[in-house]
Amino acid sequence: MSIFDWFAKQEKSEPAIQQQQKEREIADGLWTKCPACTTVTYTKDIQANQLVCTECGHHFRVEGPERIAQLIDKNTWKPLNEHLNPTDPLKFCDRKPYSDRIKDTQEKTGLVDAVETGTGLIDGLPLALGVMDFRFMGGSMGSVVGEKLCRLIEHATKERFPVVIICASGGARMQEGMLSLMQMAKISGALEHHRNAKLLYIPVLTHPTTGGVTASFAMLGDMILAEPKATIGFAGRRVIEQTLREKLPEGFQTSEYLLNNGFVDAIVPRTQLKRTLAQLISIHQPFFPVLPPLDVREQHHYREEAILKLDGRQK
Known about the structure:
The chain has one domain: 2-enoyl-CoA Hydratase, Chain A, domain 1 (Alpha-Beta Complex).
C-alpha cells in the first residue's frame, strides 16, 4: 500500500468515526429519538412535556412514580399498603423459579409489585389513585396487585373518595395461576360496593392494557378514558385472527378504534389528563362536603349550617 492510499483510507474512515461519536452522545441520555417520527429531541424537553413527543405527540411509556408526580398535587401523596409483598404459593418454575424472578425484578425496578396505590389531591380535590407499572413483569396482575387495588377501593368507599386507576398490563400473572384470575372478581366486587355508594370510578387505559385487566376493572368505569394510540384488548391480534379465521380491520385494538365502537368514552392526551380528571371529579362531587369525624350531634349541626349557607346564596 502506498502512502497516498493510506491517507485516502484515513479520510474515508473519519466520517464513520464521527458517526460513532454522535451515536455515543445520543446514547448518553441527553437526546431522545422518537420511535414514531424519528425526531431527535432534547430529553429534558420531552420530560417537561410529560414524556410526549413535541413533534408528533407520541406517548412514551411512563414509570409509576413519574405518573404519580404528573397527576397528584405536590406533597399530597400518601401511599397505602406498601408492605404487601408477593410470594410463590404454587412454587412455580419456568426458566427459573418464580421467587427468584420476583427478587430480580424488584432489584431491577425498585418496585415491590406492579401497582402503587395511595391517596392525594388533584387540583385540590381528594382521590384514591392506583398506578400500574409495566416494568414489573409486564404489569401483570397477581395476588398483591389485586389485594392492593381492593384495599384502595374499600378505603375510597369508606372515605367517599373517587377512584382513578391508571391501567398498563399484559393481563393476569400466569405464575400464580388461578390465584391471579381470582383478582378479577375480587376487584370487580369492590368496585360494585363503591358504585352502590354512588361514588365515581375512572379507569385510564394506557399502552398496553390487555388480558384479565381489560376483562375486569379496566372496563367497569363510570367514564373510561384512554391515551392516544394505546393498545387495548383481551387476546392478541394473531390469536383472534387464527380463531375467527378472518382478517381483522386496520387499527384494531387501538384506543381510537375502541372510541369509534363505543368501548371508550374519551381519548385524552397525557398533557391534558390531570385537568380532565379534575374537571370530571369536580362535576361528580357529592352535594354536601365529606363530614369530618364528629359525633352525631355535631354532624347534624354541621349539616344544618351548610343548608343555611346554601339557602342564603340561592336567595
